[in-house]
Predict the 3D structure of the following.
Amino acid sequence: MKRLRLSITIGLGLVLSQSSFSQPPAQKQKAPVKIVSAKEKPDAKQEAERIRKERQTQARSLLISLASDARSFRDQALRARSLARIADALWDVDAEQARTLFRKAWEAAEIAVRENNERLNIRNGVVSINPEEVNPATLSSIVSNPDLRKEVLRLVAARDRTLSEEFLEKLKENHSEIKVEYKSLWDLPDALQQRLSLAENLLRTGNTERALQLADSVIGSVTISTLDFLTLLREKDSAAADQRYAAMLAGTANNMAADANTISLLSSYIFTPNTYIIFNTDGAGSYSAAPVTSPANVSAQLRLAFFQTAGNVLLRPQSTPEQDQSTTGIAGKYMVVKRLLPLFEQYAPREMVEPMRAQFEVLNSLVSDSVRRGETEPVQKEEPFADRESALLDQIDRAASSDERDQLYFKLASLALGQGDLKARDYASNIEGIEFRKQAKGWVDWSLALSAVKKKNVEVALELNRIGELTNIQRVWVLTQTAKLLVKTDRVKASSLLEAASAEARRIDGGDLDRPRALLAIANALTVVDPSRVSEVTFDAVKAANSTEGFTGEGGSITQVMKTRGLMRVNPLNVPDFDIEGLFALLANEDYERAIQLARGFQGEAARANATIAIARSVLK
């Protein structure tokens, strides 16, 4: 028994001894541990810096790997676009590698342009574009087939001035090989358009001096592109813009090739910035408008200079139809004078007004009744809304036909739209023609919804979503935007709006590009309303994208088209929330590995590349 007790005692002693050695040092001596921690444990900032550098290394490797894949893309346009964007993202960490990729991107862009030219109907090296050919189909074709050299140049210009000038010189050489003849006033020749687009991009990023160095050799021509540039410049430097516009007016007054369409475009800079209308020889108009336009606050001297130039051109002796080489002919010139005459009557000196009225009467006697009845988008006098409304209602009472009444009701609807007045819906509803009424109601409801969201008027926006003639994708946009507006004051309601948006997204056909775009918009809204669900909805968007042919994850937009007699209106809205870039940049910040996993889920090369670049760019920043 004694031996047994002794054995037990010794065994317990060994157990206790081992137990004491297995205890962590902190349990034995607390003070020394604190000293070690202070001296040897990595600082939190150092650890964060280590993780940041590690992520940047991963992002760089991700881009290099993607660049290797991009060189094998069969789609030259996608190859050019991807390589240029990769180069731009890499620039701050590896400029030499980025410069090499920019050159590869340029090579791919040139191939893409040649392939696109082969798909066009080119005869004897000339492409002709006429104003009457502008319709939704051609607009879609132009948007979907951009010149990739423009995109590459835009990115290069922000990084390397020498390389951008080299590429611009190459554009001039290529332009001399393939002559492109433009018969419309919508565009510049290709090489000049590239230079102006590059200047516009620099202007938007705040580099005004460099932008003007590029643009000054181009903006003497009167086109929509040059006037758009001057309008944008006016926001940055009104004196510089007005000076160049004055020079444009002086050049036009002495240019015998200038015609009524030239004056119509020039009027936009002062009276309807970013809104343009030109007419063909039949008197039919093509109309391009920004959602909201307000007259520019220019000096009386500059406004007078416009009227002097306009009078110089519009009062020139009328050529015979056989000799008339203008873009408008008699009918188009009549429509321009009809549109601008109210401006002369309001702002021009009396000695200029009477000759213009006389010219209008002469042209009126030369055109047909159908041209006289043709629609234009008048530059309105600054009259009270009620007075203009009353005048149109009187005209409706005296209208000789239902067609004439319909046109007047649409004018009333457009007038009310300018005021953001919901009466526009009532006027559109009074249109008798079934198809015309349907188009008008859709145009009015969408315009009002856009205005309501811009003004942060949530109640009006949601009411229009409930009763308006909106498409599914338009409803998704309204619901997601209003949800973001409500998140600070009513998160519960904001969440319910996103549920409603999800229901609208499910109503969109599975093969429709709008379906993944709608889901991306919902995911973007969830980043502020309910971040815990972002990954789930993004995964749904990836699945929807994989079921949709042609999804790239960029260029998301809503374009509303409205045709009336002799006039087509186009209202485009770019929607970044429909795109991959912003969402995947946010995902990368929250959960890098999950973002990579979702990006790799895209089956389409373009969508996968765009998501990967967005992730890497976010990390490298």
